[in-house]
Specification:
mainly beta
Protein backbone atom coordinates (compact mmCIF):
# COMPACT_ATOMS: atom_id res chain seq x y z
CA UNK A 1 0.00 0.00 0.00
CA UNK A 2 1.24 3.51 -0.80
CA UNK A 3 0.04 6.70 0.90
CA UNK A 4 1.21 10.22 0.05
CA UNK A 5 0.49 13.36 2.07
CA UNK A 6 1.83 16.88 2.51
CA UNK A 7 3.20 18.52 5.65
CA UNK A 8 4.71 22.00 5.85
CA UNK A 9 7.93 21.90 3.81
CA UNK A 10 7.72 18.30 2.59
CA UNK A 11 5.76 15.66 0.69
CA UNK A 12 5.74 12.28 2.46
CA UNK A 13 5.18 8.98 0.65
CA UNK A 14 4.78 5.87 2.78
CA UNK A 15 5.06 2.33 1.44
CA UNK A 16 4.85 -1.21 2.77
CA UNK A 17 7.22 -3.74 1.18
CA UNK A 18 7.14 -7.51 1.66
CA UNK A 19 10.64 -8.96 1.41
CA UNK A 20 12.18 -12.38 2.03
CA UNK A 21 13.54 -12.92 5.51
CA UNK A 22 16.40 -14.82 3.87
CA UNK A 23 17.32 -13.63 0.35
CA UNK A 24 18.90 -17.02 -0.35
CA UNK A 25 15.38 -18.49 0.03
CA UNK A 26 13.04 -16.08 -1.77
CA UNK A 27 10.10 -18.51 -1.51
CA UNK A 28 10.52 -18.82 2.27
CA UNK A 29 9.36 -16.65 5.16
CA UNK A 30 8.84 -12.94 4.55
CA UNK A 31 8.74 -9.75 6.61
CA UNK A 32 7.01 -6.43 6.01
CA UNK A 33 9.25 -3.36 5.78
CA UNK A 34 7.85 0.18 6.07
CA UNK A 35 9.47 3.11 4.25
CA UNK A 36 8.73 6.83 4.28
CA UNK A 37 10.09 9.00 1.46
CA UNK A 38 10.56 12.70 2.25
CA UNK A 39 10.58 15.01 -0.78
CA UNK A 40 10.72 18.72 -1.49
CA UNK A 41 7.17 19.96 -2.16
CA UNK A 42 8.46 22.14 -5.02
CA UNK A 43 10.24 19.23 -6.69
CA UNK A 44 13.66 20.76 -6.01
CA UNK A 45 16.78 18.85 -5.20
CA UNK A 46 17.38 18.09 -1.53
CA UNK A 47 19.41 15.43 0.22
CA UNK A 48 17.76 12.06 0.81
CA UNK A 49 16.67 11.20 4.32
CA UNK A 50 17.15 7.67 5.61
CA UNK A 51 15.39 6.84 8.86
CA UNK A 52 15.94 3.42 10.40
CA UNK A 53 13.76 2.52 13.35
CA UNK A 54 13.79 -0.62 15.42
CA UNK A 55 13.56 -4.08 14.04
CA UNK A 56 10.94 -6.77 13.66
CA UNK A 57 8.00 -6.03 15.91
CA UNK A 58 8.80 -2.34 16.41
CA UNK A 59 6.04 0.20 15.95
CA UNK A 60 5.65 2.21 12.79
CA UNK A 61 6.37 5.95 13.25
CA UNK A 62 3.31 8.18 13.25
CA UNK A 63 2.90 11.29 11.12
CA UNK A 64 5.01 14.28 12.14
CA UNK A 65 3.52 16.54 14.80
CA UNK A 66 2.05 19.80 13.44
CA UNK A 67 4.24 22.86 13.78
CA UNK A 68 3.17 25.51 16.25
CA UNK A 69 3.38 29.19 15.45
CA UNK A 70 5.66 31.22 17.64
Amino acid sequence: MTTTYRVPGAVLTERDHVVPLDHARPDGATIAVFTREVADPDGGSRPYLLFLQGGPGSRRPGPPAPRRAG
